[in-house]
Write a structure and sequence with these properties.
single chain, 77 residues, mainly alpha, 62% helix
């Protein structure tokens, strides 16, 4: 029943426009480090919200959008 609930949550978020195909779990951290669930959440938060990660995601969005032939929206100033 737990997996169904997770799948329902993912389906809801996807319908709302969120990408849910790559989710990270505390077990990803705990497979590398001895830590509590809370500590693993802190590691994930730091890893996924640091400036380098965010910049890389924006760069990859640009590259893949261009490679897919999407028309770029010009910034309004």
């Amino acid at each position: 029943m737990k997996n169904l609930t997770i799948e329902e949550a993912k389906e809801f978020l996807e319908k709302e426009g969120y990408y849910v195909g790559n989710l990270w779990h505390i077990h990803d951290v705990q497979g590398k480090f001895k830590c509590s669930d809370a500590e693993a959440q802190e590691v994930l938060n730091g890893a996924l919200n640091n400036e380098a990660t965010i910049e890389q995601i924006w760069y990859a969005i640009d590259v893949h959008g261009e490679n897919d032939g999407l028309e770029r929206i010009e910034d309004e100033e």
